[in-house]
Design goal:
heterodimer; A: 301 residues; mainly alpha; 64% helix; B: 206 residues; alpha+beta; 4-stranded antiparallel beta sheet; 6 helices; 42% helix
Chain lengths: 301, 206
């Protein structure tokens, strides 16, 4: 009994996040997600990929369906620049909220091609996948609103509909963590959590170097305190990953989850040069804004 | 003199029985489906069932018109199915989710990298992820053939030189770097140990 009371106290009141979200919050989320993609694309000289050796290109996702001739046309400076600027244009249009179902669907398609393309020269890494799925959710629910209004006989979008894409995005974000944790625990087994695994990953990532390079990770074996932190931290973080879906229901849990996972991501940057800054910004959706700010709440009939 | 049965089992006993039963079922089913998949599925089903019977979630899903429910189901279902394909490429963005999924047991840890020498004799590291920032991560260089590695070295030098025309790269060296996971006590180095594998002359244009 005492255990269940402690657990209940820890989890706090169980309420569905964003259940009261109104149109302003949904609009802000759309703006934030589209703006984040715009910033990412503005920082990306995509046309340079035309200089990459073609034998490194192993098509990912829908790019595998393209005939070889089309890939050759596509992987030119002009083809790549066209993709980049078309996608940027669609994302900017998406900010205006005009013809949102059409514009967001076209943006989602272009972003899918872009995301497949940048992974076709290496492993299919997880960065920005949830951000892409968030655009799918915004586009999909915009169409669902349109269909329900057109064939369901309603004259305007009811208040609770605004919560659908927001809760779905939070569910996808937390599900991605949960699947990572489950996979590591079950497929990786006990060996991942014992021995030199974390030091080896830190040294490997540090030696390889990515866009960010702190050049610290390969020193890890020389620092026993850091070795201890990494080794003891992995099972702890894995537990948080597996239980991430609790964020959908528990505000207390979210306030524990946020600093823990933010610290984890920052440490990954310091020691492994890996940074999921898209997920960091999606963490803003783990705050139930509409319960705090009445202006962001849906009007109830 | 009959012993009285306790009216309620102690919660710890109930938990132990449930745990044992679940372990038994997992063990039996794992003969048919690899545990890598089955074990994850059991845990995920447990999490999904918790939400399936949580009244606010039931109410919320029930309030959705059919079209919305389809979108919700397709997105989350796609993520779960994509994960169980154990494939990160074919069905992108519905992919297997794996980060640090296996024990890394190499000691020393080694890595190949390109170190370039510029016209004024300075050394610079050429990283694909920095010169081609679209690419988040590239495969380890030792996974490529010698020809591909050379093409990549020349592509990196070309992009570098486009942005440093005043001090271009003249030569690119392929090194293998190594770091011991169990260094001798109090050993501290300024750089990992490295060994030259190959030298590419960029100035010749070959």
């Amino acid at each position: 009994m005492r255990t269940s009371q402690t657990l209940r106290h820890l989890l706090g009141p169980l309420e569905l996040i964003h259940e009261q979200a109104g149109p302003r919050l949904l609009r802000l989320a759309r703006l934030g997600i589209f703006a984040l993609w715009i910033v990412k694309l503005l920082l990306d000289p995509l046309w340079r990929l035309a200089e990459m050796p073609r034998e490194l290109f192993q098509p990912v996702g829908i790019l595998a369906l393209l005939p070889a001739g089309a890939v050759d046309q596509f992987l030119t400076s002009n083809g790549l620049a066209a993709l980049l600027f078309t996608t940027l244009g669609l994302l900017v249009l998406g900010l205006t909220n005009r013809a949102f179902p059409l514009v967001s669907t076209a943006a989602a398609a272009c972003l899918t091609v872009y995301s497949c393309l940048i992974r076709s020269f290496g492993p299919a890494v997880h960065t920005d996948i949830v951000l892409l799925l968030a655009v799918y959710a915004l586009a999909g629910f915009a169409w669902a609103d349109w269909i329900a209004l057109k064939f369901g006989g309603k004259k305007s979008v009811p208040g609770e509909w605004n919560s659908y894409p927001l809760i779905t995005i939070v569910a996808m974000l937390t599900l991605s963590y949960c699947l990572v944790g489950l996979n590591r625990t079950v497929a990786g087994g006990i060996g991942v959590f014992t021995g030199d695994t974390m030091e080896a990953w830190a040294v490997d990532a540090s030696l390889r170097g990515y866009y960010f390079n702190t050049n610290l990770g390969w020193h890890v074996p020389e620092w026993p305190a850091i070795v201890f932190m990494l080794r003891s931290g992995l099972p702890f973080i894995t537990l948080f990953e597996i239980t991430a879906p609790l964020c959908v229901a528990s505000s207390h849990y979210r306030w524990i989850f946020l600093p823990v996972m933010l610290s984890f991501h920052l440490l990954s940057l310091v020691f492994m040069n890996i940074f999921f800054f898209d997920d960091m910004l999606l963490y803003l959706l783990l705050i139930d804004w509409s319960r705090r700010f009445p202006a962001l709440r849906a009007a109830r009939a | 003199m009959s012993a009285r049965l306790p009216s309620r089992l102690h919660p710890a006993v109930v938990v132990a029985i449930i745990g044992f039963s679940v372990a038994l079922i997992i063990w039996m089913v794992s003969f048919a489906v690899p545990f890598k998949l089955a074990g994850q599925a059991y845990l995920l089903i447990a999490i999904l069932l918790a939400f399936r019977y949580w009244p606010p979630m039931v109410r919320w899903v029930a309030s959705m018109p059919v079209a919305h429910r389809v979108i919700f189901g397709v997105l989350l279902g796609g993520m779960i199915l994509g994960h169980y394909t154990l494939n990160g490429r074919t069905y992108f963005p519905f992919v297997v989710w794996e980060i640090f999924p296996f024990a890394h047991e190499n000691d020393p840890v080694t890595c190949r990298e390109f170190i370039a020498t510029t016209a004024d004799g300075n050394k610079v590291r050429l990283l694909v992820e920095q010169l081609f920032p679209s690419i988040v991560q590239i495969n380890p260089l030792d996974s490529y053939s010698p020809e591909t590695t050379e093409h990549l070295a020349r592509a990196l030098a070309k992009i570098y030189n486009e942005h440093h025309a005043d001090n271009p790269v003249r030569q690119v060296d392929l090194f293998v770097m190594a770091v011991k996971l169990h260094p001798p006590a109090n050993e501290s180095r300024a750089q990992p140990s490295c060994e030259l594998l190959k030298r590419y002359d960029i100035s010749s244009g070959r």
